[in-house]
Amino acid sequence: MNRTATLLHKNVGSIPSLEGATDADRAVLAQSEAAFTTVGDLIGAQRQRAAISEAMRVVGEANKYLADTAPWKLKTEDPARMETVLGVAAQARGRRQHHAGALPAAQARRRCMRHWAAPTSSRPCLR
After folding, report:
1. Which of 41, 51, 71, 106 sees the fewest Cβ atoms within 10 Å?
2. Average pLDDT score, the chain
3. Domain residue extents for the chain
4. Least confident residue range of 36-40, 57-61, 98-102, 106-110
5. What average pLDDT does range 41-60 have in this prediction?
6. What are the percentages of helix, strand and coil residues in the chain, rounded to 5?
7. Keyword annotations for this protein (predicted)?
8. Which helix (H) or strand (E) holds 54?
9. What is the C-alpha separation between 75 and 8, in angstroms, rounded?
């Protein structure tokens, strides 16, 4: 995540469009999008370990995509491709942040529902 943000900041200044996206680029985005539903379903089924495993699997795939495409090398060779790769990584990264943000909230609801402890937020327990 930090690598993507740093490369975007130093080389682009914003999140670029995905005009030149390849099939591999679209596959990474589709996988990240599908994982959002999968992780949510696993959390809803009280399968937190499986949800975390799925989220981390998608993180690994996104990291592999970044290592394989090497946008830091594309800066001089193909700047337009570098921007597309960084745009894909940033969008996949944003989806991962949604996954990570859902886990603590789901855990708080679970604790509340089972009366283990009060939720960490000021919202009332969901029953």
Report:
1. 41
2. 77
3. 2-113
4. 98-102
5. 91
6. 75, 0, 25
7. ATP-binding, Ligase, Nucleotide-binding
8. helix 48-69
9. 11
